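pinned: reference chain
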Amino acid sequence: MNARMLGPGSSIPGWAEDIEIQEFGSAWGPLSEFEILWLADACAFARWRALPEQGEAELLRVAVAKGNRRSGIATRLLADSTKYLADKGCTDFHLEVRLSNLPAQKLYESVGWRSAGIRKAYYSDGEDAAIFRLSAAEQSGCC
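pinned: its structure tokens
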């Protein structure tokens, strides 16, 4: 996998915005001060908000182009990005995912993330979110 990382102020490639619009209905926009974007093979990305000085990182979005799914790219992308963030001082990782997004939940569970509850009516359409967490201590088995 050919991966690279972009930080705040970087331009987001058009292909990543296209995938984001297809998968989420809109593009998130420019990277904020604490966000990084991992890009893989011009077909997948993971967007994180990272606060290493506080020991935490939140996975905001991850997506793989339809023709590249089930190839292991999301697993490798999560492994590379969580390792990088752990090396920078992040010890606790979390994310929210739609309850209806079972493929994503299975991916997270397969790489060591653990279910940590439900956020009621988290999304603008009223759907609940499943909360997942991963600690750096568990990360050695991740991905």
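why pinned: The CA atoms of residues 11 and 30 lie 7 Å apart. DSSP finds four helices and seven strands in the chain.
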